[in-house]
């Protein structure tokens, strides 16, 4: 079949399917793209040929920013439990490098996205082309090489003959739960438009079976022995529980054996907040309940977690516990010198049925439930009140959002959400905290809505994050994809402001204030109207100035058919203080007494840091 490389690529992608548990879906649901000279004549032309209405169409979506396209693909793929994703096509140069941040975010969160940056001419005859890097050491280096370290598979298609093998490798990595992440095929602009005679089989419908690797019998036996020998086990549920669809298996296992379940950001909702074994968030942004148990547990059963520093409180949290790590990726299963159980989470949890009626210590299960009740009381205290503090905003939203999805990524809200949000299931809680990327919120929320159009999507975004990347409101409006965007304005970076103060950096550069008479950024608040900005991008806007008006606005936004921004200014009002540390180094020498005190406290905390050998 004589087609250009770009036409062949598009035709191939439209024929790829994923399958797990007997359910098939399109592996690549569509293509986001921003065109320039590096892709308009190649992929642009190919996509134009296969638009809506053609059999086996590959739908095209226009975004405003290439980084945002990748965020949207991630939001989509995470919601679809990594079984379906989007491709993103860009021009060469800045369009391509704009995707580097999105690629890192995808790879760190272990979420599949397919990136198709244009690249400079393979023939080089026209070079240096507009936007070409020109590395004097090698003509083989282009800006796209910046995507290599953030991609789980990277290839550059310099000749048409290379395409089939690269495509097959790309699909394999996208659908491998242990290896998945950003997959990049760099496409030189001349090669995209070049014709070739392709074998018909390349375009046959192809199904990629997503594995549920069963635990190896010997490893399972070791795991069961560890569990049987434990009296105070604590389960740490990570994102892998959600991706594996293992929530029911987890609730059944924990219910039977009496082990409390703590949750990471990606694992939040693994068991519902009112489940008898629930003890909530663990780590630096954890609940007092989960953190107390973590300190006393003799066995941590990590399920699908990558043990970020937030989870382990920078390796200070889990007293003397042993680790048993259930993970589909050996890389994660090996962490903290854990007993490795390399397996699909659901398969492993079901295999724990072999424990029969083994149970944790009676007192342990009872105390966990007691601590969880205490935490719920603390939550109702801080999330109700007459002032619009952030916890009050979250409490109101938690009521209104009900069976909706909350989306967030950076600032002070992820921590507050992790502590305070009462999640009913993982798909309802979408906080990107692997990369915690400011600007993910609206673009990622758009992906969530694309993946689950039947659900109400509530995007929570701070003023700082909003100013980094608000432009995808336009895409939401254009596509008729309705989002409720709750824009929380506190005039700057509340999170980093607090952190700055605690490490002696005096809140430098963390408030949106005018340059004042002192020459510093300490004047009046910068006169900026973010609500008007949102309206100008095409959203409906509702302003709330108190808890009751916020409830009304959120309800109205929920009921509306149009993308609506609920603008709210918050007053300081913290969530319950953290009960676990986070390692952020403080200056070792300074003239400032406050810094010296902070350093002393830092050094004291650091003594509790363990190598987990
Ligand atoms: C792209 C990016 N740049 C910088 C940071 C570091 N950072 C984390 S939170 C934050 C401030 C966020 O401000 P805002 O969205 O207003 O949330 P707030 O802290 O006020 O809750 C910054 C600068 C980041 N996470 N992502
Ligand atoms: Mg802010």
From TrEMBL:
Gene3D superfamilies for this protein: 3.40.50.970, TPP-binding domain (3.40.50.1220)
Example of a GO cellular component annotation carried by this entry: acetolactate synthase complex
Domain Thiamine pyrophosphate enzyme central: 220-351
Gene Ontology biological-process entries: inositol catabolic process; isoleucine biosynthetic process; L-valine biosynthetic process
Stretches of the chain forming a coiled coil according to its record: none
Pfam family, one: TPP_enzyme_N
Entry-linked PANTHER family: 3D-(3,5_4)-TRIHYDROXYCYCLOHEXANE-1,2-DIONE HYDROLASE, THIAMINE PYROPHOSPHATE ENZYMES
Keywords, comma-separated and alphabetical: Thiamine pyrophosphate
Natural source organism: Planobispora longispora
Domain of life: Bacteria
Location of the Thiamine pyrophosphate enzyme TPP-binding domain: 410-567
Residue stretches making up the Thiamine pyrophosphate enzyme N-terminal TPP-binding domain: 25-132
GO terms, molecular function: acetolactate synthase activity; flavin adenine dinucleotide binding; hydrolase activity, acting on acid carbon-carbon bonds, in ketonic substances; magnesium ion binding; thiamine pyrophosphate binding
Name used for this protein in its record: 3D-(3,5/4)-trihydroxycyclohexane-1,2-dione acylhydrolase (Decyclizing)
Family: Belongs to the TPP enzyme family.
PROSITE patterns (UniProt xref): TPP_ENZYMES
